C-alpha cells in the first residue's frame, strides 16, 4: 500500500484503507504524533528557559513540559473522537451506512496536516525564541506572549490552510467510510469545517 496517495489521490487512499481494515494502529499513531507535534513548541521554550534557571526550577520545567505534551496528545485524541462523532451523526442525515469505527479510523489519517502544522509552528517558535538576546525567563516568556500583528496573521493563515487540508481529507474519509456521494460528503463536513475555521481565526477578530 502506497501512503503517498494520501497526498496525491486521497480518494484512492481511503478506499484502500477501507479494504485493508486490519491496519487500525496507524491512524492512532498519526493522532498521537500530531499531538506531540502540537506540543513540541514546549520543547523549544524549555531549551531556552533551562539556560536561565536553577537546577531545582529546571526539574519543575521539565516535568511541566512533559505534562503539557501529554495533555496535547490527549487533546488531539479528544478532537479525533469529536470530529468522528460529528461527521458520523451529520452523515446520517444524508443516508450514511458505514460503521463509526471505520469512519473514526479514516478520520485519524486527517491529522497528518496537523503534524505539518505543528512542525511549522515549531520552526516559527524557534525563530522567535532564538532571537531573544537576553537569556532570562522574563525575556523568553515575553517573546512568546507578545505576537506581532504580522506574525499573528502568518500563524492564522497557516492554521486555516491546515484546517482546509484536513477538511479536504474528511470529504474522502466520509465518502468511503459512510458510502456517500461526493456532494453529500462535502455537505457533511461543512459544519465542522466552518466551526474549525472560525476557531482558528478568532485571534484576528
UniProtKB/TrEMBL annotation:
It holds the Pfam family Yip1. It comes from the Archaea. The chain crosses the membrane at residues 25-45, 57-83, 103-124, 153-172, 184-201. The keyword Cell inner membrane does not apply. Residues 6-199 form the Yip1 domain. Keywords: Membrane, Transmembrane, Transmembrane helix. Its main location: membrane. GO terms for cellular component: membrane. It is a multi-pass membrane protein. InterPro entries: Yip1_dom (IPR006977). It is found in: Membrane. This is YIP1 family protein. The lineage of its organism: Archaea, Methanobacteriati, Methanobacteriota, Stenosarchaea group, Halobacteria.
Amino acid at each position: 500500500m502506497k501512503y503517498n496517495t494520501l497526498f496525491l489521490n486521497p480518494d484512492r487512499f481511503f478506499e484502500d484503507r477501507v479494504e485493508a481494515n486490519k491496519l487500525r494502529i496507524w491512524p492512532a499513531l498519526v493522532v498521537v504524533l500530531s499531538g506531540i507535534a502540537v506540543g513540541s513548541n514546549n520543547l523549544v521554550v524549555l531549551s531556552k528557559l533551562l539556560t536561565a534557571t536553577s537546577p531545582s526550577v529546571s526539574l519543575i520545567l521539565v516535568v511541566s513540559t512533559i505534562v503539557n505534551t501529554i495533555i496535547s496528545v490527549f487533546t488531539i485524541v479528544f478532537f479525533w473522537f469529536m470530529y468522528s462523532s460529528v461527521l458520523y451523526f451529520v452523515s446520517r442525515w444524508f443516508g450514511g451506512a458505514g460503521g463509526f469505527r471505520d469512519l473514526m479510523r479514516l478520520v485519524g489519517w486527517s491529522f497528518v496536516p496537523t503534524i505539518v502544522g505543528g512542525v511549522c509552528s515549531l520552526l516559527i517558535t524557534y525563530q522567535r525564541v532564538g532571537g531573544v538576546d537576553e537569556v532570562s525567563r522574563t525575556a523568553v516568556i515575553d517573546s512568546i506572549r507578545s505576537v506581532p500583528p504580522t506574525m499573528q496573521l502568518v500563524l492564522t493563515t497557516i492554521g486555516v490552510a491546515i484546517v482546509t487540508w484536513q477538511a479536504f481529507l474528511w470529504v474522502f474519509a466520509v465518502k468511503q467510510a459512510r458510502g456517500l456521494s461526493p456532494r453529500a460528503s462535502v455537505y457533511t463536513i461543512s459544519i465542522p469545517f466552518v466551526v474549525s475555521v472560525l476557531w482558528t481565526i478568532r485571534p484576528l477578530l
